[in-house]
Write a structure and sequence with these properties.
Blueprint (H helix, E strand, L loop, with lengths): L1 H27 L21 H5 L4 H12 L2 E6 L2 E6 L2 H10 L11 H6 L13 H14 L2 H6 L1 H17 L6 H18 L3 E8 H8 L5 H5 L2 H32 L8 H11 L8 H16 E4 L5 E5 L1
Parallel strand pairs: 3-4
Antiparallel strand pairs: 1-2, 3-5
């Protein structure tokens, strides 16, 4: 009985003291400098406005409601991250076009450092000469109108497959999921040459590291960093296989004089071998560009720890 009472008191003590310690830690790591910020909704300690964002599954509607109340420029606190939300077309043009250099830097977090090869991708790279060169390659070589038009046959084929699948379906289906799957396949074929399924799930605890970067202890408590590194190693192995297969195929077709439709990886390898670029395009950078082109559709949040699958079908 005495042991049970001691344990109960320990639990009560922990529940009372832990929030106090977190608040003190928060105050010690919060700057006291007064900054003029746009208007915004009221904020809770520690979580800021995360509770308001989590109140609705439709975050874009939540943002629209807040913008209608607080104006086209508002301030949100997402955990420890201070965010300025722009919802006016006029101000968006000012930010993304007129003053784009001033807003070009992006924050980094643990997963970005590991998965994007130490933030060397277009998304997380600092605004420098490398970023400008890679942007030029993407605009002129990878995503030009001519290049996009060259993938028209892929789009038509996959759209035809979708229509055929719907016509043969004898039961209710989710059209949004089918269209999403079709888009993924089109991107994969355009980027990699054939249908690959690379899925990288972000475990929910990773969001804690994004919104609370100062609280470094969670990464060790939940053993997150080794898990991300393990997934990155698997992903790197898959990208090595993709690049190696492309190189072998290009050499074989070059030997017999056979021309084939270039995908994104083919274009990057051709530029790497040509020596015409103003910088050395490494294999690692080819991996990063390949990953960036696909990651918008392949990365999703999941309740399971970081997942990466490869299916060739």
């Amino acid at each position: 009985m005495f042991e049970i009472q001691i344990s109960f008191l320990a639990v009560i003590f922990t529940c009372l003291v832990a929030p106090v310690i977190l608040v003190i830690y928060w105050m010690m790591h919060t700057t006291s400098t007064t900054v003029r910020l746009p208007p915004g909704p009221w904020k809770l300690p520690l979580v800021g406005n995360l509770h308001q964002m989590a109140a609705s599954s439709l975050s874009h509607r939540c943002m629209a409601d807040l913008a209608n109340k607080y104006g086209p420029i508002m301030h949100l606190k997402l955990g420890q991250l201070s965010a300025i939300v722009i919802s006016s077309l006029e101000f968006v043009q000012e930010v993304l076009k007129t003053h784009d250099v001033a807003f070009s830097q992006r924050p980094t977090f643990l997963a970005a450092e590991i998965v994007s090869y130490n933030c060397s991708s277009l998304i997380f790279s600092p605004f420098n000469d490398f970023w400008r060169h890679m942007q030029k390659i993407c605009v002129l070589e990878l995503l030009s109108a001519k290049r996009v038009d060259s993938f028209a046959s892929i789009r038509l084929e996959e759209a035809s497959n979708l229509v055929q699948s719907i016509s043969l379906s004898g039961h209710p289906f989710n059209l949004s999921e089918m269209i999403f799957s079709m888009v993924n396949i089109i991107i994969a074929r355009a980027a990699l040459g054939k249908k690959w399924k690379i899925q990288l799930g972000l475990e929910q605890n990773l969001l804690c590291r994004i919104f609370f970067p100062l609280l470094k202890f969670p990464r060790y408590v939940i053993n997150l960093k080794p898990a991300i590194e393990k997934v990155h190693q698997k992903m790197d192995k898959i990208l090595d296989e993709i690049i190696s297969n492309h190189k072998v195929k290009r050499n074989e077709e070059s030997a017999v004089g056979d021309d084939h439709q270039e995908d994104i990886v083919d274009v990057l390898q051709r530029l790497q071998e040509s020596g015409e670029l103003q910088f050395d395009l490494t294999t690692t950078q080819i991996k990063v560009v390949t990953l960036v082109i696909n990651q918008h559709h392949f990365i999703h949040t999941s309740t399971s720890i970081l997942i990466l699958k490869k299916d060739e079908f």
